[in-house]
Amino acid sequence: MSDAVKSATAEDSNTRRVDLEITGMTCASCVGRVERKLGKLEGVTATVNLPLEAAAVMVPPSVTDEEIIAAVDRAGYSASIRRAPQEHNATAAVTGPGHPVPGDGGEPSDGDHGDHHDHAVHAGAEDHLNHGPSGDVIKPRLIGAAVLTLPLFLISMFPALQFPHWGWVALVLATPVTFWAAWPFHTAAFKAARHGSSTMDTLVSIGVLAAWGFSTAELVLDPAMTAHAGAAMGGGGMASMADHQLYFETAGVVTTFLLIGRWLEARAKKRAGHALKSLLDLGAKTATVLRDGVEVTVPAAQLVPGDEFVVRPGEKVATDGYVVSGHSAVDTSLITGESVPEEVGPEDTVTGATVNTSGRLLVRATRTGSDTTLAQMGRLVSDAQTGKAPIARLADRISAVFVPIVLVIAMVTFALWLILSGDLQAAFRAAVAVLVIACPCALGLATPVGLLAGTGRASQLGILIRGPEVLEDTRTVDTIVLDKTGTVTAGDLAVTSITPLNGHDADQVLRLAGAVESHSEHPIAAAITTAARAAAASSGTVLPDVDRFTSAAGGGVHGTVVTPRNHRNDSGVAVAIAHQSPQQLTTHGQREPVTADAHAVAAGRSSYIATQVDSGALTTAEEQQLADAEAAGATAIWVSVDGRIAGIISLQDTLKDSSAPAIAEFKRLGLRPILLTGDNAEVAAQVAAAVGISAQDVFAGVRPEDKVAKVIELQEAGRVVAMVGDGVNDAPALAQADLGIAMGSGTDVAREAADITVMGSSLGQVVQSVQLSRKTLGIIKSNLFWAFAYNTLGIPVAALGLLNPMLAGAAMAASSVLVVANSLRLTRFGR
């Protein structure tokens, strides 16, 4: 969101926010025109988003909704008022009927336009998320244009395929392409012309209409022009192309290839708002509410503040609240992005959509509807997408200068020919020839073919690029912000070290702890069990049995581990060395009876383990050893055996092998890497040091809104920011960044909020995505240069009346082949 909008929201309580749906915008100049028109209204500030076709408008009481809509209409576009997406969806999904959320904007404000308001209320979430010229609208035009253009191109360009009166067939094939398939370009050009501007659409529309109109006029004036088959005409071959002035295929080819580009963009637009919907869908669908002591399952939409609901292990927390009773570990990765669960007990707060992993909780709801943390995250995503500055397309910027120049040259050519020759027909023909030769045939291929080649190669490398504007985003990126968990690190807890104490060894500590932890569903217990089972398997043994298992939610676990007595270590702890028959083990070829020992084993946090040791407390030395383990960035768990401390097991999120080389490559590319994480400072510093990120570029303990604020802070400092993340908590920052890159191993919300998705989990693919995007943009730029160079060189020839059809056809074909061949270089990227 722009600073002006934020300021208005924060400082002027009388200023209201109006969310608009705007249709008809096609480029960045459209966005600027709408913002300027709205900005002329006193006290109004607006931020328009092209992909979402939406605008966030801050409006003072003196301005009505009708005035806002009228301003957009004067800019040449259509607008309707709707609720902010996150409020509409969150209200519909969470509050439900009969439980209105205070301040959710459900009632019309003064001056609401009834029809538009009704549309917003009844259209539903899908209408808010799938707007713009959809693929469903463009696709039939593209298919129709392609089907008609293929035979049109063949009979026009290859004399051997021409037959008597083929020109009339070409007219029939080209007409629907010109006036139906190319209609979006004509309407966009007309709107631009109404407001004194020109875009790529203007050049396309003029070129297509000029090619069709000029060819039709020539054919009508000389009906016998194509009376004979091309192959039978004198000279045959290419020479026959000089015997006609028909350019119907130009109209078809330009329209078809540009529709391909528009269709690709439409698909990207359709996905642009899905991150918000996916985020809101993460909430719990039902809740188990306590009513008069009886558990009743109700839709989560019916919860109101004050309701008490039960959350069992494995269930999502239905809405924000605090724990009334119970202890558990809650997976808060949705909010923090970190793999270590948060221990909660009475009076601790919990967040809706997080997952309860162990004990039973009774929670009292404190916030519902649009007030929840989940809805606020949705608002962050929506505001970031709406406030993201669109890029003026390179072709549009060139066209803004090129089109007026071409029109002026055409008019001057017409005037000079009329003055000097007095021949109206010759003057008209020369002027239209200028427009024909300026028609962007190669230009129509430049961006879509470059994009297709680049994205095709990217998909082979497991990289998905959302649209052409993304490529332009990559060219000036100078800062890359990296989430830690799941991006730089693997995102899974693993045992990294074991510190044995009081005569035990590391293998014994892990084996005994793994045995008792195997009965717990806690994520930390699962990591210890996995490590213990792997160690046992490597030595050909299994974990010993456990009796009388108990678990203290939020504290630790305790059990009696039963081990064979035959194999002992120096401390007297029995260890199972083989999984033999129930009664016997084999030692040095002798069979002897098996007896078993039982040992009380406990594993857990300091406060819990103190209750399990004979002394009733930890010594200063033991507490220091735990502090040292945690200072190294680990989650440390105590293990006690028979009332004595046996050791410490440290667990950490492990680094990905690709992280350090990738960050070194980022630096080589001129990017400044920054680590942004919700984890603690010690862990963040350790990870940064391991992968080569400077200590001053590490920011720890940040929540989703803090990540957005950090991205905005960097942008305001003049940095062009790329953000790499994988979690729900990264989605707002991915949307806010100039370039969002999501890890394919992450959540759907993160992928849909991003501009680029790498399908694997390696940062090396992120490096490739930046390199390939820059390479693709370079190819498109060179394509545009040669396309415009062809147009520019051909215009004087046409203006002098020397436009030879054979020469023009050959030049057009050569420029198009050059563009395609140049684009195909991308298929060799990375080989």
Keyphrases for this structure?
6-stranded antiparallel sheet, about 850 residues, alpha+beta, 30 helices, 7-stranded mixed sheet, about 50% helix
How do you describe this structure in short?
By secondary structure, the chain is α+β, with helices and mostly antiparallel strands.
Description:
The chain is of the alpha+beta class and 831 residues long. A seven-stranded mixed beta sheet has the order 14-28-27-26-15-24-25, with helices on both faces. Strands 6-5-7-13-8-11 form a six-stranded antiparallel beta sheet, with no helix packed on it. Strand 22 (635-641) and strand 23 form a beta hairpin. It is elongated, with a radius of gyration of 34 Å. The model is unreliable at 1-12, 84-133, 231-242, 387-392 and 566-595 (pLDDT under 50).
What is the strand and helix layout of this fold?
Blueprint: H1 3-11, E1 16-23, H2 28-39, E2 45-49, E3 54-59, H3 65-74, E4 78-82, H4 85-95, H5 114-123, H6 125-129, H7 135-157, H8 166-181, H9 183-194, H10 200-221, H11 248-272, H12 274-280, E5 286-291, E6 294-299, E7 308-311, E8 320-325, E9 328-331, H13 333-336, E10 342-344, E11 349-350, E12 355-356, E13 361-367, H14 373-387, H15 394-421, H16 424-438, H17 441-460, E14 463-465, H18 468-474, E15 479-483, H19 484-488, E16 489-500, H20 506-517, H21 523-538, E17 545-552, E18 556-564, E19 584-587, E20 590-593, E21 596-604, H22 606-609, H23 620-631, E22 635-641, E23 644-655, H24 659-668, E24 672-676, H25 681-691, E25 698-699, H26 704-716, E26 721-725, H27 731-736, E27 739-743, H28 748-753, E28 756-758, H29 763-799, H30 805-824
Parallel strand pairs: 15-24, 15-26, 24-25, 26-27, 27-28
Antiparallel strand pairs: 1-3, 1-4, 2-3, 5-6, 5-7, 7-13, 8-11, 8-13, 9-10, 9-12, 14-28, 16-23, 17-18, 18-21, 19-20, 21-22, 22-23
